[in-house]
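step=encode ok
step=design start
structure_in=
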């Protein structure tokens, strides 16, 4: 069984997190998200993995190598120009063979039984089977209408008001017959949802839908990234401590996953599920609430409150600061008595001085300096970087 993982996108919707890493290498519980996906696929028996890469491909290769650590064999196919989702898969045709194969996005995080998905496709043998899942907001996805035989009767990409005839969203996971390559032009930007599906339906080809059960996210926005991390943290069922710890009359309620050389100060409280990387120091009277992930060599000073947030590596949080539902990238420094509100994203090496309030759902680009006492009410962009945060 072969699987093609598409990893060519730039991840503009996740900026500032994707300026220095591709989207599949964004950290989820202190590990690149692509590692979670490859582990899941390998555990299901998909050991022959082809990855299409483009933007910052070196980081993906460094994270996965040849696949041996995951019990798989990984091959890489490079995109010189942007070919779209279907075009990138056709670019890997020479490695996919003559049997049906699975296609998933490199930014997907899921616990869905994709082996069952693959086997159900083999029973019916349509040209393509689309994984579908019920969602609360179908307007952000391609949606499908299916009949009792699981045949797709209608499909619409990102429907507007009056067009939302179904809440079954395409997961972007497909099982494909090699026959699809006859309908995808060579060296041309061509997408599954926008181009291939309408073409196949116009020609009367059979497209099936498969109703998925379980957790799935395309990790395409900060909100979906935090949700995906919450799922992975919920999977923790026991305490795992890798190395020594120094605890000063603190209170720890599991489940937790701790690296080595962690210090927890007097009267601090950690309530799991929480993951903390090695070398991190936590001061006195600190509250770290559930669904929080903290990377390596972070410094959290006294009287800090952290709730359901994600810190990457070498982050510093000043005294008396509150962080709730935020994502803070590598080497960012947050001053004393700050409030970092829900949904905010702080870029790498950004310095936030004392008594700063960052309003919810705002983003701060890398290498910014926010002066004392500032209230950040809108995105703070750095003109040294691309300022777009829409798109892929």
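sequence_out=
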């Amino acid at each position: 069984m072969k699987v093609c993982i598409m990893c060519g996108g730039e991840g503009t919707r996740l900026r500032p997190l994707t300026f220095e890493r591709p989207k599949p290498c964004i950290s989820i519980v202190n590990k690149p998200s692509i590692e979670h996906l490859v582990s899941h696929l390998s555990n299901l028996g998909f050991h022959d993995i082809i990855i299409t890469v483009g933007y910052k491909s070196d980081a993906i290769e460094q994270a996965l190598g040849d696949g041996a650590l995951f019990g798989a064999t990984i091959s890489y196919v490079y995109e010189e120009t942007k070919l779209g989702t279907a075009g990138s898969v056709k670019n890997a045709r020479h490695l996919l063979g003559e049997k049906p194969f699975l296609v998933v996005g490199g930014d997907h995080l899921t616990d869905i039984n994709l082996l069952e998905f693959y086997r159900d496709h083999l029973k019916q043998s349509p040209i393509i089977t689309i994984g579908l899942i019920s969602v609360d907001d179908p307007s952000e996805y391609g949606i499908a209408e299916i009949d009792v035989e699981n045949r797709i009767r209608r499909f619409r990409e990102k429907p507007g008001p009056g067009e939302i005839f179904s809440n079954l969203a395409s997961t972007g996971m497909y099982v494909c017959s090699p026959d699809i390559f006859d309908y995808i032009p060579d060296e041309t930007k061509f997408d599954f949802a926008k181009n291939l599906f309408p073409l196949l339906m116009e020609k009367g080809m059979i497209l099936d839908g498969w109703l998925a059960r379980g957790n799935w996210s395309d990790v395409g926005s900060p909100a979906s990234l935090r949700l995906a991390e919450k799922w992975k943290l919920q999977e923790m069922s026991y305490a795992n401590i890798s190395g020594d710890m120094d605890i000063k009359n603190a209170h720890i309620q599991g489940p937790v996953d701790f690296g080595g050389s962690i210090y927890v100060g007097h009267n601090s409280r950690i309530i799991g599920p929480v993951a903390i990387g090695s070398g991190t120091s936590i001061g006195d009277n600190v509250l770290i609430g559930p669904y929080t992930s903290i990377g390596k060599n972070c410094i959290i000073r006294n009287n800090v409150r952290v709730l359901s947030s994600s810190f990457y590596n070498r982050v510093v949080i000043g005294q008396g600061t509150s962080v709730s539902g935020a994502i803070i990238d590598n080497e960012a420094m947050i001053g004393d008595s700050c409030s970092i509100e829900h949904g905010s994203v702080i870029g790498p090496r950004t310095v936030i001085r004392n008594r700063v309030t960052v309003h919810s759902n705002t983003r701060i680009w890398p290498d910014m300096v926010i002066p004392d006492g500032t209230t950040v009410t809108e995105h703070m962009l750095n003109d040294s970087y691309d300022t777009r945060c829409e798109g892929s």
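step=design ok
step=annotate ok -> The mean pLDDT is 92.
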